[in-house]
Design goal:
- The longest helix has 24 residues.
- The protein is α+β, with helices and mostly antiparallel strands.
- The chain is globular, with a radius of gyration of 31 Å.
- The strands form ten sheets. The chain has a seven-stranded mixed beta barrel.
- The protein starts with a helix and ends with a helix.
- Helices cover 28% and strands 25% of the residues.
């Protein structure tokens, strides 16, 4: 039954026990029963397990077997067959041909099992065990990490009957069409609304002239007792919706282009990263697109696949985002003049909602309650209405948003003429505003946000960095939120508020790995308005599925390319695994490390050229502040509840009531109607906390996962900081420290990763550094056995904390190593350095390609260590070439020039190969302090970086150095003795 009802899936989709007859036939076929008796055979099996010799019904046998399953078991629950019969009974509700009332559930279940309609044992046993059995199915699906789908057996009302009804009420075809409704009413992917807030939208959608809903679903909606159940199913679908829509109309020719944003925090302050995104129409998306420049030319622009079907621009340096915000953006597939276009209309106010799947802020129609958001607001305009938008937004947020939001007009990445509101968390709808973008869709909202979310099909967070609870209720002033253990249902904590809003950080509770249920109660209600499950995991409880699927990656130095890229290939002579090295390259140190600097020429800095791609319209509402709403023509007939109009300039959708207001409504002043609506107070809420770089939580999350596709590591990195630049920094940092191994493609782009084996790696001071997979309980055990003086944890600003073990006897070190099956590595930096090839051998081994076409190029000037514009790439060296909006880094030696070839590399490798080709290195050595320095931007590539870091065990520090009367930022690797500095210099220059 499990194989048929819950087959393995490649996507995180809700899993229902939707027992159509063809599915029952498949179950019978798998059990070698004929299709003619498939249902009867299923019922007979269930009768054999639930009805004793005296004809009495009992679930104790099934319940006992179900309870025996361990909490983390992935074994199929023994209750599936019985639950399938309960769903069949639920599917027959509403059928009055049997002489039963439409809502008579227990009588129908009794008849299926050949029991009396009023069998009291059936009713009693079902009420006693139904929730336990369905909870076990949910837990089983969660333990499988979504491999067989996302659990859906939840019921906020009608606790017992509601569970099978949630599986049977809405057919699969109608569930697939919910995406059309979500899109039509501006709901965002992954949005978690209370079912009661979806009822108005379902009502409009199911009573409209739209052809999307089926006749069966429309008939169900006419029964008012079905509204809560259908809304509960729709809420589950919305929470797991990725933004796609299965539209039967194949003639769609226009898609949407949206903005995606990330906030970046660095040593120079905050900045805003903007990019464009599309959801492809059809199946032909390959990432090669064209965008219409303001000048009227179609130019190439590349998109890369993200999560949940969203494709994003892979680079943004060359795009003038001011032109995008002010004008119409048009994008099409490359060389597809007649294909679909993706458009983005300008808006005065652009809400961007944080999307967990994208780890970024994604443009939405309007703000949501309790969700982290950004607002881009146009500062200027040709009318008072247009120019007063910033003041209006400031006024609304001061009354409706959690304290702590910030305003900026001049941070890096923010186009001129725009204001950025960040750290925005809306907790109530404004009493009055002319901007629809500030009016949320929900009235009551329970949100779990913040913390570090672990990449998985099933939502789970890091125990080290748990989320916080945010609740707001606009229908009542009193609310209560409870936290309970899912397995035992034991209450853990409860919070109450009489101001209509509440924030509760779970980090205050010191929760352990486990599954927790959060429930929101409004007023005096005893049934929850909304419930959310929170799963906390850490490196102490590994994800066995991802660990078993993770690639086994090592750096195979039988090939020089192993110095740049890990692989699954087995090595014969030299291999590097974490900080463990097996083999010696046998290269003698022939080039001394000196303090001489060959790149002391003064730099010439050039300003980047940005391309405008939006088509501005001086008469648009973005400039004038006046929307141009187009309303449909009414030809008589049935009046709709809501009339939708769309602004012809910005695409804003406004909805108007399809009836005239009554005289009573007309006579009441607006301010009098609004006075009683202001139920929520935000003044007592804690200030929005400043985002912190929790590197330790990130590393612990990687220990939990063990490895996998690079997309999972990317998602972890982007939660610390959302820019592509930081993802690269995050990856190289953990690789240099020896915590992870990275597999790369022929162009140096990461493809997969794996957690490195646990090591005790000796640094120059004689201490031993913990690298790889050391869990928090293991570290606590070391402290407990040897004392905190032996194991010291030193916090780092630009990486995870260092765990250093003081010098101990060999026997003591082995005791610690055995806790994680770790390897003790004496002199780790020197050992790794002796295993590395010459950099020239690496350069010669890189795959060559025909020189790519380009529109402009820059050559890395070795004398000044700076990029300089050039029109000629026919000389050996490192180049940065641009084609459309794409940037490539290439290296060319003499042979490449003669053969018309080039090596596509990373930016750092290209620079070092160029220096190596003339027998030089950017690195210089200060013998007195045993420090090796290299200019910032010229970080050592691959395992050369790991070897230099291994001497001290921490990342190079940033140091300002006076070079030819100019201050240059340099990276300083410390504690490298002269002999090893000579060997490293030899490897980099020969």
């Amino acid at each position: 039954m499990a194989e048929v009802i819950y087959p393995e899936t490649d996507e995180a989709v809700p899993a229902y026990m939707d027992l159509e007859q063809d599915l029952i036939d498949k179950i019978a076929a798998a059990a070698k029963e004929g299709p003619a008796s498939s249902r009867a055979a299923l019922v007979e099996v269930v009768r054999g397990a639930t009805i004793d010799r005296d004809g009495a019904f009992s679930l104790s046998k099934i319940a006992s077997q179900t309870r025996r399953l361990p909490g983390r078991s992935i074994e199929e629950p023994p209750c599936l067959a019985f639950l399938a019969v309960t769903v069949i009974a639920a599917e027959e509700m509403g059928n009055t041909e049997e002489g039963l009332a439409p809502h008579a559930y227990y009588a129908r279940l009794a008849r299926i099992l050949s029991l009396d309609d009023g069998d009291s044992a059936l009713r009693k046993e079902y009420r006693q065990y139904a929730e336990l059995l369905w909870k076990r199915v949910n837990k089983w699906l969660e333990n499988l990490e979504g491999e067989r789908g996302i659990p859906t057996a939840f019921a906020l009302t009608h606790r017992y009957v509601g569970l099978p009804m949630a599986q049977a009420l809405v057919r699969e075809a109608d569930r697939r069409r919910f995406g059309l409704m979500f899109t039509q009413y501006g709901l965002s992917p992954g949005m978690r609304l209370a079912p009661e807030d979806l009822i108005p939208y379902l009502g409009m959608w199911l009573t409209s002239a739209s052809s999307a809903p089926s006749g069966n679903l429309r008939r169900l909606w006419k029964r008012t007792d079905s509204h809560d159940r259908i809304a509960t199913i729709a809420a589950v679908e919305l929470a797991n919706w990725d933004g796609g829509q299965q539209d039967s109309h194949s003639s769609v020719t226009t898609g949407r282009t949206i903005l995606v944003a990330n906030m970046r925090t660095g040593f120079l302050g905050s900045s805003l990263d903007l990019s464009l995104a599309v959801r492809p129409i059809g199946e032909l998306m390959d990432g090669h697109m064209e965008v219409l420049e303001t000048a009227g030319r179609w130019s190439a622009i590349g998109f890369i696949p993200g999560t949940a079907g969203l494709w994003r621009t892979s680079y943004t340096e060359e795009i003038d985002f001011g032109s995008i915000l002010d004008g119409l953006v048009r994008i099409r597939h490359a060389e597809a003049n007649e294909g679909p276009e993706y458009k983005r209309h300008p808006r005065r106010i652009v809400p961007l909602i944080y999307d967990d799947l994208q780890s970024a802020y994604v443009q939405a129609e309007r703000l949501q309650l309790g969700v982290d958001s950004l607002l881009l607001v146009r500062t200027t305009g040709t009318t008072a209405a247009a120019s007063g938008a910033v003041e209006e937004v400031q006024r609304v947020l001061s009354h409706c948003a959690r304290p702590g939001f910030t305003t900026a007009t001049s941070i890096e990445g923010l186009p001129d003429g725009w204001t950025l509101f960040s750290n925005v968390q809306l907790f109530t709808a404004p009493v009055s505003t002319k901007f629809n973008e500030l009016v949320p869709l929900a009235r009551n909202q329970l949100t779990v946000a913040g913390g570090l979310q672990i990449p998985s099909r099933i939502r789970k967070w890091s125990t080290v960095s748990p989320p916080e609870i945010r609740a707001t209720v606009q229908s009542e002033k009193k609310l209560r939120v409870t936290l309970a253990d899912v397995e035992t249902e034991v209450p853990i904590e409860s919070w109450e508020s009489s101001s209509g809003s509440l924030v509760a950080p779970l980090s205050d509770l010191d929760l352990q790995d486990g599954d927790y249920q959060i429930s929101l109660f409004t007023g005096s209600n005893t049934n929850p308005t909304q419930q959310i499950s929170v799963r906390l995991r850490s490196g102490a409880a590994i994800d066995e599925i991802t660990w078993n699927r993770a690639p086994r990656l090592t750096y195979n130095l039988d090939s020089p390319l192993g110095a740049l890229c890990a692989s699954e290939e087995m090595a014969s002579h030299i291999v590097v695994d974490g900080l463990v090295c097996d083999g010696d390259a046998g290269i003698p140190a022939t080039e001394p490390a000196t303090s001489k600097i060959f790149w002391s020429k003064p730099r010439t800095l050039s300003q980047p050229h940005r391309v405008s791609i939006g088509t501005p319209d001086p008469k648009s509402c973005v400039v004038t502040g006046a929307h141009h709403i187009s309303l449909p023509t009414w030809y008589g007939g049935h009046a709709t509840k809501v009339i939708e109009g769309e602004c012809s300039s910005c695409g804003l959708v406004k909805r108007f009531p399809g009836w005239l207001p009554s005289r009573r409504q007309k006579g009441i002043p607006a301010n009098a109607r609004e006075a009683g609506d202001d139920l929520v107070s935000v003044t007592a809420l804690p200030v929005v906390a400043k985002a912190k770089f929790n590197w330790d939580a990130a590393l612990d999350t990687l220990i939990h996962l063990g490895g996998g596709p690079f997309s999972s590591l990317d998602r972890v990195a982007r939660q610390l900081e959302g820019s592509a630049l930081f993802v690269d920094t995050f990856t190289r940092t953990l690789e240099a420290l020896g915590h992870i191994a990275i597999e790369r493609d022929h162009r140096g782009r990461p493809t997969r990763w794996e957690l490195s084996p646990s090591c005790l790696a000796q640094v120059a001071s004689g201490q031993y550094r913990l690298t790889g997979g050391w869990s928090r309980p293991t570290i606590a055990t070391v402290r407990s056995q040897f004392g905190s003086e032996v194991l010291k944890q030193i916090a780092q600003e630009t990486g995870p904390s260092e765990n250093l073990v003081s010098p101990l006897t060999t026997e003591q070190l082995e005791i610690i190593a055995n806790l994680e099956d770790a390897t003790i590595v004496p002199g780790s930096g020197a050992e790794l350095l002796r295993a590395l090839p010459r950099l020239s051998e690496v350069g010669a081994a890189i795959e060559r390609v025909t020189v790519p076409g380009f529109e402009s190029a820059e050559r890395f000037d070795l004398a000044s260590a700076t990029w300089m514009s050039t029109g000629d790439i026919a000389n050996p060296g490192a180049y940065r070439i641009k084609r459309g909006f794409e940037i490539l880094y290439i290296f060319r030696d003499e042979n490449d020039i003669n053969d018309g070839l080039a090596a596509i590399t990373s930016v750092h490798l290209a620079k070092h190969l160029a220096a190596n080709s003339i027998g030089k290195t950017f690195a210089f050595y200060i013998e007195k302090s045993e420090a090796l320095l290299t200019p910032r931007g010229c970080e050592l590539p691959g395992l050369y970086d790991r070897a230099a870091v291994a001497f001290t065990g921490h990342l190079p520090s940033l140091k300002s150095v006076a070079i030819a009367q100019e201050k240059r930022k340099c990276l300083m690797y410390s504690s490298i003795d002269k002999a090893n500095a000579d060997l490293l210099t030899t490897l980099l220059t020969t």
